[in-house]
Design a protein that fits this description.
There is one protein chain. By secondary structure, the protein is mainly alpha-helical. It has two domains: 149 residues, no CATH class; 137 residues, no CATH class. The protein contains 16 helices and four strands. The protein is globular, with a radius of gyration of 19 Å.
Length: 320
């Protein structure tokens, strides 16, 4: 997926809101509008108290979902704004208008997803301003996008449109993958690295299918150019993390080093590597597995369940 911090972490499950009609779907920008009012009234330097009263307290479900582990609290948000005032300014003046113009892309993506999974409720999409550390997250019925991060990783309006199109598809898949992260650490499932690569790879696979474009073309080209060596490294890291649980990923441990080489490294990829290479390698595993399945309708459902990951790996392993 697009390089941004904490892109795929799921928010705590909550009661799902009413389903969205793909023909009328829209990005809900009310939270960013409230943020802009606070930001402008404070001359671009809002205090924690102003942010709490004008942005966080009246915030939508999107803000509430984005607060734990991302915004954290008003003080942390005020600190992030002070450290990158120009970035927040650009997000409001340059990128917010672009988001408002992508309702067509959203509806086209949602129509494609609805055609593929007609029984799955499409999530509402909230646009929020975070603390510069997350591009998006999802839970059943909801996806939330962090405007300041999406703006930062998109150099031009056209690049932002591509980023948003990818997120609309990728994060929707995560909204449908409930329980997959918990299942990844269950005994016999191959460990959290395999689970994470398959969760993210499934989202990228489906997003590529419904948008008709590779989600990260530069990363895909890089990976294909040296797939044999990357796969050898991945196999070694899978062995290191085979019994690892999420709580074992403490920085400085072999399990953490193996995991973060592939996942969660948007600002710290290994030298010479593309960020979040695990997304791409997971997509490649799914592609090889999917190509072998006689019933594609049944197969595509497996990408949402991500069940029996070691079986998926056995059929999708690189053999070149």
């Amino acid at each position: 997926m697009i390089a941004a911090l904490l892109l795929a972490s799921a928010v705590p499950a909550a009661a799902a809101p009413p389903p969205v009609d793909p023909l009328t779907a829209q990005v809900e920008t009310g939270d960013v509008d409230r943020f802009a009012a606070v930001f402008d009234a404070a001359g671009g330097a809002p205090s924690a108290e102003q942010l709490q009263r004008g942005y966080l307290d009246p915030g939508s479900e999107g803000v509430r979902a984005f607060t734990p582990d991302r915004i954290e609290d008003a003080a942390n948000l005020a600190k992030a704004i002070a450290a990158d005032r120009a970035g927040y300014e650009r997000a409001l003046r340059v990128c917010l208008p672009v988001v408002r113009q992508t309702q067509g892309e959203l509806r086209a993506t949602y129509l494609a997803l609805h055609g593929l999974f007609p029984d799955k409720p499409l999530p509402r999409i909230y646009l929020v301003m975070g603390a510069g550390n997350s591009g998006g997250t999802a839970s059943p019925g909801v996806q939330v996008l962090g405007l300041e991060v999406l703006c930062r990783i998109s150099a031009t309006p056209d690049a932002l449109r591509d980023t948003l199109r990818s997120f609309y598809a990728h994060e929707t898949v995560h909204a449908w993958q409930g329980g997959a992260e918990e299942a990844a650490e269950a005994p016999g499932n191959g460990g959290v690295l395999l689970g994470s690569a398959l969760i993210e790879g499934a989202a990228d696979f489906i997003a590529t299918l419904v948008t008709g474009r590779q989600i990260e073309p530069a990363r895909a080209a890089w990976g294909l150019a040296d797939e044999r060596a990357l796969w050898k490294r991945f196999e070694a890291d899978l062995a290191t993390t085979r019994t690892a649980r999420w709580s074992d990923l403490k920085r400085g441990t072999p399990a953490a080093a193996a995991f973060y080489r592939w996942i969660g490294n948007a600002d710290a990829a290994p030298e010479g590597w593309k960020s979040e290479a695990g997304y791409w390698i997971g997509q490649r595993i799914w592609q090889r597995w999917y190509d072998k399945q006689p019933d594609k309708q049944v197969a595509i459902r497996r990408l949402l369940a991500v069940d029996r990951p070691t079986e998926i790996l056995a059929e999708g392993r690189y053999t070149g």
